[in-house]
TrEMBL record, chain A:
One of its GO terms (molecular function) is pyridoxal 5'-phosphate synthase (glutamine hydrolysing) activity. InterPro entries: Class_I_gatase-like (IPR029062), PdxT/SNO (IPR002161). The active site is at residues 81, 183, 185. Its EC number is 4.3.3.6, 3.5.1.2. This is Pyridoxal 5'-phosphate synthase subunit PdxT. In the presence of PdxS, forms a dodecamer of heterodimers. Only shows activity in the heterodimer. The gene is pdxT. GO terms for biological process: L-glutamine catabolic process; pyridoxal phosphate biosynthetic process; pyridoxine metabolic process. Pathway: Cofactor biosynthesis; pyridoxal 5'-phosphate biosynthesis.
UniProtKB/TrEMBL annotation, chain B:
This is Pyridoxal 5'-phosphate synthase subunit PdxS. D-ribose 5-phosphate binds at residues 27, 156, 217, 238-239. Pathway: Cofactor biosynthesis; pyridoxal 5'-phosphate biosynthesis. Residues 10-215 form the PdxS/SNZ N-terminal domain. SUPFAM superfamilies: Ribulose-phoshate binding barrel (SSF51366). InterPro entries: Aldolase_TIM, PdxS/SNZ, PdxS/SNZ_N, RibuloseP-bd_barrel. Belongs to the PdxS/SNZ family. HAMAP family: PdxS. It catalyses: aldehydo-D-ribose 5-phosphate + D-glyceraldehyde 3-phosphate + L-glutamine = pyridoxal 5'-phosphate + L-glutamate + phosphate + 3 H2O + H(+). Keywords: Lyase, Pyridoxal phosphate, Schiff base. Transmembrane segments: none annotated. Catalyzes the formation of pyridoxal 5'-phosphate from ribose 5-phosphate (RBP), glyceraldehyde 3-phosphate (G3P) and ammonia. The ammonia is provided by the PdxT subunit. Can also use ribulose 5-phosphate and dihydroxyacetone phosphate as substrates, resulting from enzyme-catalyzed isomerization of RBP and G3P, respectively. D-glyceraldehyde 3-phosphate binds at residue 168.
Length: 205, 297
């Protein structure tokens, strides 16, 4: 299966950038706002955006339960920034009643790096990517979360290397679930999407 | 190998606006209103002293908000907090940055502080959003460092007609550029009073290089959905929520209509039982000297 069909959750956030990145790595990318659309895809991307808004819209438009079912059923999912929060089993500094889809055995801290004036970009060692050993990944963090704790079956793929947050985990994978604190869809360097599309291709066989 | 981290880059500033797309940003004047907005699903709140409808009614000079009020709103909500500075008032903007607001709106809704120059927005780490009535104005603001543009509309009226005009105007001028042969882009830049490189970029992209929201007069879910169908990437709602009969319910309805802007069944459903919309005034009844959209150039 050369061209996997990958959905991008399109209730709010930078949907278009993810659609572009997925198309550029050879996937067929479709926006998903309804359960009927979710049923058509082999993998999902949860984009950047406001996690509290996305959580509410997922519940209001009855996507939360079908998404949880697909995740439990082994669908590959990649979450960037707000998407990482949606995928996490546990959340810190969320809104009082904020829910996640869950699936990824991590604790994520929302807005961990601070406010917008603290948002930054930095080169990250990201070895599992193509040429990842030689070419670091330029990562853009926007009011980003970080991973506070990981469960035993979670692999840490990348961590911040400089500044006061050095050592903080910002990219993880557990089985077919992938998450980054930063926004690969904004850089034009599509290696993270390439890595995820390969996960979907392998899963679909 | 690893370089130092950089804050305040164009990508980080413009990227923040990308994360707000498809969302609703709501004007709030108290921490309680900010909480209502957050609970309704707002992607951000805009902290200001008086909503535009009250500024219009009460008159006087309108300025950036009291720092204590902004602090209370920042403490109340976990979503991004924006705040307004007067056009050209770079010190109000410095203060807002120091308070930790996430976006500064250099806004015609407040009384301008400089009738010649806008703020040099490149000097700041915090990103800026600016209003525009047409493409040339939008590109001049981007040249000065704006990382997000919103149509101006006519704030505080509940009359969406100016927002419609401005959105149509910006989109029509972009389509016009796309259809021009390359050798005519030089004159187009002159006519738009905008830098050639930026004009060329817009002609190639078919869109602004930053996110384009709408603002000014949006009062109903259908208003928000119409602006989205006209090409807005998200919506600012000012007086329309907290000057209406049932702010919490109206706020949530506008959020839903903005996500499903192209689905009339959803818009119909969320438009039921909202109570009174803000009363509003026709833009035509606003004396020319009192029209906010004409501030800025």
């Amino acid at each position: 299966m050369n061209q996997p069909v990958i959905g991008v959750l399109a209730v709010q956030g930078d949907v278009r950038e993810h659609l572009r990145a997925l198309e550029s790595v050879g996937a067929k990318a479709v926006p998903v706002r309804r359960a009927s659309e979710l049923a058509q895809v082999q993998g999902m991307v949860l984009p950047g955006g406001e996690s509290t808004t996305m959580d509410k819209l997922l519940r209001i438009f009855e996507l939360q339960a079908p998404m949880r079912e697909r995740i439990a059923g082994g669908m590959p999912v990649y979450g960037s920034c707000a998407g990482m929060i949606l995928l996490a089993d546990r959340i810190m500094d969320g809104q009082v009643d904020q829910q996640t889809l869950g699936g990824l055995d991590i604790t994520v801290r929302r807005n961990a790096f601070g406010r917008q004036v603290d948002s930054f970009e930095e080169n990250l060692p990201f070895a599992v990517l193509r040429d990842g050993e030689e070419h670091p990944y330029r990562a853009i963090f926007i009011r980003a979360p970080w991973v506070e704790a990981v469960g035993p079956s979670v692999d840490v793929l990348a961590s911040v290397t400089t500044g006061p947050a050095a050592g903080r985990v910002v990219a993880v994978r557990q089985g077919v679930l992938l998450a980054t604190s930063f926004h690969p869809e904004m850089t034009g360097d599509d290696r993270v999407h390439e890595y995820f599309a390969d996960m979907v291709r392998r899963r679909a066989g | 190998m690893t370089e130092e981290a950089q804050v305040g880059t164009a990508r980080v500033k413009r990227g923040m606006a990308e994360m707000l797309k498809g969302g609703v940003i709501m004007d709030v004047v108290t921490a309680e209103q900010a909480k209502i907005a957050e609970d309704a699903g707002a992607v951000a709140v805009m902290a200001l002293e008086r909503v535009p409808a009250d500024i219009r009614a009460q008159g006087g000079v309108s300025r950036a908000s009291d720092p204590d009020m902004i602090d209370r709103i920042i403490a109340q909500v976990s979503i991004p907090v924006m705040a307004k500075a007067r056009i050209g008032h770079f010190v109000e903007a410095q203060v807002l940055q120091s308070l930790g607001v996430d976006y500064v709106d250099e806004s015609e809704v407040l009384t301008p502080a400089d009738y010649a120059n806008h703020i040099d927005k490149w000097e700041f780490t915090v990103p800026f959003v600016c209003g525009a009535t047409n493409l040339g104005e939008a590109l001049r603001r981007i040249t000065e460092g704006a990382a997000m543009i919103r149509s101006k509309g006519e704030a505080g009226t509940g009359d969406v007609s100016n927002a419609t005009t401005h959105m149509r105007q910006i989109r029509q001028q972009i389509r016009h550029l796309q259809n021009l042969p390359e050798d005519e882009l030089y004159v187009a830049a002159k006519e738009l009073q905008a830098p050639y490189e930026l004009v060329k970029e817009v002609a190639q992209l078919g869109k602004l290089p930053v996110v384009l929201f709408t603002a000014g007069g949006i009062a109903t879910p259908a208003d928000a959905a119409m602006m989205m169908q006209l090409g807005a990437e998200g919506v600012f709602v000012g007086s329309g929520i907290f000057k209406s009969g049932n702010p919490a319910q109206r706020a949530e309805a506008i959020v839903k209509a903005t996500t499903f802007y192209d689905d009339p069944d959803v818009i119909a459903k969320v438009s039921r039982g909202l109570g009174e919309a803000m009363v509003g005034i026709n833009v035509d009844d606003v004396p020319v000297g009192h029209r906010l959209a004409e501030r800025g150039w």
